[in-house]
Amino acid sequence: MSRPSRAAVHRSGARELDLTVVEVADPAPGTVLVRMGASGVCGSDRHVLDGDWTLPSPTVMGHEGAGTVEAIGDGVTDVGVGDHVILSWFYPCRRCTACLSGRSYVCMGSRSEECVLPDGSSPLTLDGERVFPYLTVGSMSEYAVVPEAGAILIPREVPFDVASLIGCSIATGFGAVVNDAGVEAGTSAVVVGAGGVGLSIIMALQLVGANPIIAVDLSEEKLEAARALGATHTLTPSADLAERIAAITQGGAAYAFEAIGRVQTIESLPSLIAGGGKAVIVGLPPEDSPVSIDALALAESGKSLIGSNYGSTVPGRDFPRLAALYLAGRLPVDQLISHRIGLDDVNEAFAAMRRGERARSVIIF
Ligand SMILES: [Zn+2]
Ligand SMILES: [Zn+2]
Questions:
Q1: Distance from the CA of 103 to the center of ligand 2, in angstroms?
Q2: Which terminus has fewer CB within 10 Å in the chain: N or C?
């Protein structure tokens, strides 16, 4: 059995998504059928549309989603029908050494990046043709079938638009600050790029008590959002950016986060931190984008340059924690949502993103 589902489908080479109807299969053993409540429109989706990353095709796009469990396959025990869940775009296998040692963010058994379920199948078809759910989520669709390990139970009080962002940009930003950088209260931090992930980083920096918090972006609209979320200083990029940051931080920030995924800004990141500081790559560049680093200067000044993917999130631990922080009023995720749109408006949302506009658009189903 299967059900029709209106969805946004990408075919390789196309920069626009087709709004069409796919068929979603019933949940196989160990999988969960979710009726989508909301899906974020994320920069990672845009990378796929712009041909920066190679993927199986055709693909139902969207990887940050939240919704209601509609049906469960045999053997599923973590969630039941009617539960509210956040989808994770990196489902753990729960069996490899990384998973067993609590580091499921470097799981070696997940097939998320192949956009398939653990058995290699896809639950989606379009006119009989196999379609892949992006990162085994495919949240730009009324329905999705995901592995049990990729559907995390959250309290019903969390609205779906907020929950969908917890599933990607919030987890990525919070995790970069808390799990990867380990930012301490009273230390300085600079965030380059104030889009969805950059603003999530700023929100987390504010929560852990970083000070000062310096946001850098070209867009005055985004810098205003950064100030509202706790940035103490906002700067537009310039040739003397490192000197301006050094002046604010007495010699360089303790932490710097790159949230764009641009080679030139990643290369400049170590120049923004003081000796002993940590520079964290959070934004993901296109494939085959080597960066050039002055290794001698990095080593001599004891600086660290680290990569952060999905904030080293352990979804079952971190999503409920982030949902609780939101419900306690300590993580104003709502403020990140600049536009609530329908599925049909998704191409316009990507166009706005390419123009450097909008903090975050969220599709409401
Ligand atoms: Zn995302
Ligand atoms: Zn694993």
A1: 8
A2: N
Q: How far is the CA of 132 from the centre of ligand 1 (A)?
A: 17
Q: What is the pLDDT of residue 356?
A: 82
Ligand nearest to the CA of 259: 1
Over residues 273-290, mean pLDDT = 94
At 1 the pLDDT is: 83
Residue 127 has pLDDT above 80, yes or no: yes
- Average pLDDT (8-14) is 94
Q: What would the DSSP string read from start to end of 48-111?
A: HHTTSS---SSEE----EEEEEEEE-TT--S--TT-EEEE-SS---S-SHHHHTT-GGG-SS--
Give the whole-angstrom CA distance, residue 15 versus residue 307.
Answer: 28
Predicted pLDDT of residue 150: 97
The residue whose two tokens read 């029908």 is 81
Q: Which ligand has the minimum distance to the alpha carbon of residue 44?
A: 1
Ligand closest to 89 (CA) is 1
* Ligand at shortest distance from the CA of 172: 1
Q: How many of the other CB atoms lie within 10 Å of CB of 72?
A: 21
Backbone angles phi, psi at 65, to 5 degrees: -135, 160
CA of 210 to the centre of ligand 1 (A): 24
> pLDDT tens-digit profile of 161-183?
999 999 999 999 999 999 999 99
| Domains parsed from the chain with CATH numbers | 2-153+332-364 (3.90.180.10), 172-309 (3.40.50.720)
- Kindly indicate the confidence band of residue 361, based on its pLDDT and cuts at 50, 70 and 90: very high
Dist. CA 109 → ligand 2 center (Å): 5
CA of 94, nearest ligand number: 2
Residue 108 CB burial class (10 angstroms; 0-12, 13-18, ≥19) = exposed
Say how many Å lie between the CA of residue 97 and the centre of ligand 2. Answer: 7
pLDDT of residue 357: 80
